[in-house]
Design brief:
Helix content: 25-40%
Order of helices and strands: HEHEHHEHEHEHHEHHHEEEEEEEEEEHH
Strand content: 15-25%
Shape: globular
Distance between the termini: 53 Å
Structural class: alpha/beta
Radius of gyration: 23 Å
Largest sheet: 8 strands, mixed
Length: 430
């Protein structure tokens, strides 16, 4: 009888271990990393996430820090955070000899795309896109993890300029609201690189600052006040963004590498758990839409309009469409066809209006309805993907309106306690 029990225990041991054990950078695994950040752009949470990343820089092989802000902001904003890191460096390196020298980090800072890609999804090579290609081709058997905190512009450009890199890169993309601003670059990647390895986190990442244990010192603001404020130059500067209240919406991409199994996005990790998806949602309409026209939330809506034939397709925006009080550009594709793309970030009714110097387009308007994910038929020209993951839609992993967020916030105490231990390194030498 005892022998039978022992055999059963051995049989089930791997299953139990799969859900309870974790690998990741904190256990000694080393991962190659490029961070592509819209730091200095539309959302100051990238500064918080960059501070967090540098506190863990000793456990990664950081090969690139790319500023791709599509507006205000440049790689100088990354330099500013590295300057703070340098002030804390003497203390940090006593805790780990693997903290990179500040000048080593500065050397891998590259300028990415400032302007969003035109309708075709790519434009011209940038320092950032060229650096992605160069790093990918290093003689290193490990995949190159590209953590995209903003738009996919530099990734799209790199893939266009050297499609072979898709075989060796892994993308963790903080989508959601970012996706609407870079819909054309996203569309280009999704349509042309079916074998690309991609985690598309549209809502899961929100678990970093929504839900989980949030009382007492684990409240977003109280955590800063009690555990970060005044902790070296990095801790003090953290308070410059959102008054110190934790957002760090891009940090789950880092946490995915810190604690979990990066080889299997469906497994548990501090950065969330994801479900494999073969197809990405897209809805195409010819002419202006009405309220009965539907597109999945976070899916691409493409609206094709007829207008004058002005010659070959070009990269100059031909009209502006305003939606939710924000302006986006539409482009000419030749043969009298004009196209706009957008990705709604929430379920509901969306209205848009067009302004253009082209009289046939000017004043055009429409409305469409964004519906729940996985609620529409597959786009008939959809491209099948082999290595693409996205948010889990099971109700038990939903936090408020955000699917998948619980797969992050269930770890809130653990990842914040670890963050506290890291920021404490800035206070004094070991």
């Amino acid at each position: 009888m005892k022998r039978i029990i022992l055999i059963v225990a051995i049989i089930f041991l791997p299953v139990l271990g799969f859900s309870q054990s974790h690998s990741g950078a904190l256990t000694g695994e080393r991962y190659r990393v490029i961070v592509s950040s819209d730091i200095g752009g539309s959302d100051p949470d990238d500064f918080q996430s960059m501070i967090h990343y540098l506190l863990y820089a000793d456990v990664f092989d950081t090969e690139g820090l790319i500023a791709s802000p599509w507006g205000a902001g440049t790689k100088e904003d990354i330099f500013d955070i590295i300057d703070l890191y340098e002030k804390d460096y003497d203390n940090l390196k006593t805790w780990s000899e693997n903290y990179p020298d500040p000048d080593v980090l500065r050397a891998v800072c590259k300028q990415g795309a400032i302007d969003r890609a035109p309708g075709k999804g790519y434009r011209d090579a940038t320092e950032g896109s060229d650096w992605i290609i160069k790093c990918t081709h290093k003689d290193d058997p490990r995949p190159l993890n590209i953590l995209v905190w903003g738009l996919l512009e530099d990734v799209a450009q790199a893939l266009h300029d050297d499609p072979s890199i898709q075989e060796k890169i892994r993308i963790y993309y903080i989508g959601g609201p970012n996706k609407k601003w870079g819909a054309d670059a996203y569309n280009y990647i999704e349509e042309n690189f079916p074998d690309l390895w991609m985690i598309e986190s549209n809502s899961t990442y929100r678990g970093w600052f929504n839900g989980g244990i949030m009382d007492g010192s684990y409240d977003n603001l109280e955590f800063f006040k009690q555990n970060i404020d005044g902790h070296g130059a990095l801790g003090t500067a953290f308070g410059n963004y959102y008054g110190g209240s934790i957002k760090m919406g891009d940090t789950p991409s880092v946490a995915w590498l810190l604690h979990g199994n990066p080889d299997d996005p469906s497994d548990e990790s501090w950065g969330g758990s994801y479900t494999k998806t073969d197809y990405r949602p897209k809805s195409v309409f010819y002419g202006h839409t009405n309220k009965n026209d539907k597109v999945e939330v976070f899916g691409i809506i493409e609206i094709v309009l007829d207008g004058p034939d002005i010659g070959p397709a070009n990269d100059e925006p031909q009209f502006t469409f305003t939606i939710a009080k924000q302006d986006f550009q539409g482009y000419y594709y030749g043969n009298g066809k004009y196209i706009l793309r957008f990705a709604p970030k929430a379920v509901g009714v969306w209205n848009y209006q067009i302004k253009s110097d082209i009289s046939e387009l000017d004043g055009g308007k429409g409305v469409f309805t964004a519906v729940a994910e996985n609620s529409l038929p597959k786009y008939d020209k959809a491209v099948a993907h082999t290595h693409w993951w996205t948010d889990r839609l099971e109700p038990e992993f939903k936090e408020g309106a955000h699917y998948g967020a619980v797969t992050v916030n269930q770890w809130r105490k653990a990842f914040l306690d670890d963050f506290e231990a890291r920021i404490n390194r800035c206070l004094e030498p070991k």
